[in-house]
Amino acid sequence: MRFFSIRGLSERNRMSREVGNLNAVKDFNRGVVWTAGRKDSRIGHPLPERKTLNPIGQRLDERRASMKFFHAADIHLDSPLRNLALEDPAQVERIRRATREAFRGLIDRSIEEEVSLLLLAGDLFDKDNPNMQMVHFLRHELARLAEHDIRVVIVKGNHDADNRIGRFLELPSNTVVLDDSAPQQVAFPDLGVAVTGQSFRPGPVTGNLALSYPPPLPGFFNIAMLHTSLSGSPDHDPYAPCTLSDLLSRGYDYWALGHIHQGEVLSRDPAVVYPGNLQGRHAKETGPKGAMLAETDGVRLVSLDFVPMDVFRWSPVSVDISGIRDPGELATVLRGKFEELRRTAEGRPSAVRVTLSGRSSLPSFLLDRPDALRHLVLEVAAEVSLDDLWIEKVRRETRREIEHPEAVVDSDFAAILSEVVQDREALHSALDNDLSALVRLLPEELREEISRTGAADPASLLPALLEVLYGPEESL
After folding, report:
1. Nearest Cα to 295, choosing from 213, 198, 223?
2. Is 23 helix (H, G, I), strand (E, B) or coil?
3. Sorting pLDDT into bands at 50, 70 and 90, what band is 47?
4. Category of 149 on φ-ψ map: left (φ > 0), alpha (ψ -120 to 50) or beta
5. Would you state the pLDDT for residue 427?
6. In b/e form, how buried is each residue of 73-96, taking b as 16+ CB within 10 angstroms?
7. Could you write out the DSSP letters of every residue in 452-467?
8. Which of 131, 69, 71, 121 is nearest to 100 (CA)?
């Protein structure tokens, strides 16, 4: 999915920007890493590290004309399954391996696209569970990138900050994890790119980290990395809160964000981007998941594309069964839903949560037996596709359709029901007497609660009871 492609924009004069007094801390694979210090010096002023800073003076036209990079976040390697109701062991195992396979796919695609840089914006890990198998997997995948001269820059998120796995992980030479004590800048003169970011420390990160980021490096395409909730999200804990205006005011060309699992481009110039997580982990993380592929000409961002990386997708299927009266009709509706789902899944399996809603006239042997209903859904899914549709759960949010008393076969009982419907005051009085007798039998604390809330008031119970017995008000 291409979000935009920009060419021919007027070049902004970056050489006039201020730069802080940056203290070089180490060389890094033909790049240089700095930690922000005082911010009262400008380019050209004499600094003690002048020889170290010489690479900044390299001319843009001596560098690579264009450069591609991947931006991914929230990998959550080996994330545990949540609320999984799949029955097929093979499907369960594929889901268990999904986060690793998605990450391996990201490495494959990075090599295929010949990117120069991979940015991982937090939550590479999921839980603090030291696992040497995971350590070996991660080191091997990052080393594959090193063989193709692809650099990797990582900031730690809230799931990574105090994760013990990092203690066992010896990173290959192409990879750097940015510091958690202050923002760091990594300059790659051969690429014409500088990356700034700060990792999380253990514990809640409640301060606005973005405000402490130093000014961009002149003459470079400047990328900032940050794991943040921005102004807040109902589905995510607040970490490193800041506003979009805070980010836009810093002067960077691309903000590589993480933490929010739903991908979104918040701004295009400059780019402020959440790629979303790489692989959906549970039934609420639906739809395509992946990473952002960006290209710069060394001065500006010229293209930005979403690239799906998920190995399967969580997909909700909702069916309104109002008016459906037989299993064959329900099967036809389900078949159409499943076929449409396969057409939009881009060749990936779908873990499907089916929700049936509405007022139903289906036979009781089907509607009142969850096992029979699930069996019908499974049969239809297998008919559409044996391998690509995994029925994770079948949920019922239905109510049985009740016939109007006048439609019931003539009998004494039907006559009584019709009489009650016509005299609601009598029904109200009868309910009042019966409920009062029941309340007197309850313990004292329950009687007080019922009296306080009015739970036994026939006026509040009558409308609901009538609807259950006779259908909605408009049908009477």
Report:
1. 223
2. strand
3. very low
4. left
5. 66
6. bbbbbbbeeeebebeeeebeebbe
7. HHTTT-HHHHHHHHHH
8. 131
Least confident of 63-67, 128-132, 333-337: 128-132
Asked whether residue 437 carries a pLDDT value surpassing 80, the answer given is: no
Residue ranges matching CATH 3.60.21.10 in the chain = 2-308
Burial annotation 379-395 (CB, 10 A radius, 16+ → b, else e)? ebbeebbeebbbbbbbe
Peptide linkage before 270 cis (omega within 30 of 0): yes
10 Å CB burial of residue 21 (0-12, 13-18, 19+) is middle
What are the Cα distances from residue 337, in Å, to 297, 377, 381? 44, 11, 10
Query: How many residues comprise the chain?
Result: 476
pTM for the complete prediction? 0.70
Q: Where are the alpha helices (DSSP H) in 406-443?
A: 412-422, 424-440
Phi, psi for residue 417 in degrees, rounded to 5: -60, -40
CATH topology of domain 2-308: Purple Acid Phosphatase; chain A, domain 2 (3.60.21)
- Residue 14 in this model has a pLDDT that exceeds 80: no
Give 124 or 277, the one with higher predicted confidence: 277
**Can you give 92-125 as a three-state secondary structure string?**
HHHHHCHHHHHHHHHHHHHHHHCCCEEEEECCCE
- pLDDT at residue number 381: 94
Among residues 133, 197, 205, 135, the alpha carbon closest in space to that of 163 is found at 135
Residue 382 has pLDDT above 90, yes or no: yes
User: How many Å apart are CA 125 and CA 74, to the nearest integer?
Assistant: 8
How far apart (Å, rounded) are the C-alpha atoms in residues 101 and 239?
A: 28
Instruction: Tell me what the mean pLDDT of segment 280-299 comes to.
Output: 91
Residues with Cβ within 8 Å of residue 404, at least 6 apart in sequence = 470, 471, 475, 476
Query: What mean pLDDT value characterizes the chain?
Result: 76
